[in-house]
Amino acid sequence: MNQDLKLSLRPRGEPSGNNAKNDAAVAAIRQKLERLVSAHASAAGWTGEDVDDIARRGTILFFSALSSGHTASEALEHAAGNAESEYAIEFVESAPDRGEAMEEAYEHLLARRVASIRPIPCISGCLNRRA
To answer: How open is the CA angle 27-31-65, to the nearest 5 degrees?
Structure first.
C-alpha cells in the first residue's frame, strides 16, 4: 500500500480554526485515498466505473472508521480491505431494483471483472446462505 497518505487529526472538541483550510485538507485526503483504493481495485481486476465506485466506497469506509475512533492506519487498512466486498454486496443486493435476479447480478459482476481468478470475497458465501 502507498505509505504517503499522512493525516493530522485534531483532538475532538478542539476548534477547527480555518474551515476553508480544513475543507481543502479533507479534499486532498479524499483524492489520495480514492487513488489508492482505485489502484487496489484495478490490481484486483476491476475496470472502468467499477473502479470508481469501489474508490468511493473505500472513501466512505475510511472516514466512517475514523469517526468510529480507529487510527488513520486502521481506517486505511479497513477501507482498502473492505471496499471491494462492500461494493460487490451492494451491487448484488440491489439486483431486484434493476429487475435482475441476485444470481444473475453476481454472474454479471464477475464477467465485468478481468484478469482475476479469485472469487469476490464474501459474495459466494452470502449467495449460498440466501438460497
So the answer is: 80
